[in-house]
Amino acid sequence: MKKYVLDLTVSSVEALSPKHVLIKLTDSKPLPEMTPGQFVEVRVDGSPSTFLRRPISINFVDRDSNELWLLVAAIGDGTRRLATLQKGDTLNCVLPLGNGFTMPSQPSQKVLLVGGGVGVAPLLYFGQQIKAAGGEPTFLLGARTAADLLELDLFKAVGRVFVTTEDGSEGERGFVTNHSVLTHERFDQISTCGPKPMMMAVARYAKVEGIECEVSLENKMACGVGACLCCVEKTTEGNVCVCKEGPVLNINKLSWQI
Fold it and tell me: To the nearest 10°, the Cα dihedral for 4, 222, 249, 68?
């Protein structure tokens, strides 16, 4: 897929929580084709301590509004600077990068999309694409508290949504792999993104149940094209650059102890 370096215009910035913002970007021309699970590398201007681009998952692509959505957790100097962007500002992006999720082979397949924290970001676009193809995705979303759950209304507009919170403030108490839906229903395919311990737990569940499973890795990715080698992941086929061969990988290719 062809890659572009574009100066995109900020159409809006919405605070979703004290530490999360949704940045919507547009362009005078139609945005390039992008698949769920891919990401962009954004240049952070005005941050003296931020020398490298920041990888941000594609949260959604609104073709009607010609907008690209980026869900950003403002946790470091670079992302905190991104959170200060205003409508009309310009954000330089390299996109689309990496390989995305595998679409179900048939709309009738039951697909479970599991996200934790800001890792829910790429699952919204994936779920929308599954719905557009005639399927009905099921989302299982986890967070520490109810205040940390992001874009719930948007997920509910796309498919079924189940929630866990560590403190029990919304949904079932515990982690995503503790949710009762996993014992009551059988799924054909699982895709997950979030903290590595969560993804490893999901992968273990999928392995035991014999379910095809893909994970979207969140290794540090400075260049996005496989040149800097800072995102290398060990697999059954040798070391790969997550930014180029991933970020989405089948769990059967990973050397995780699951």
Answer: -40
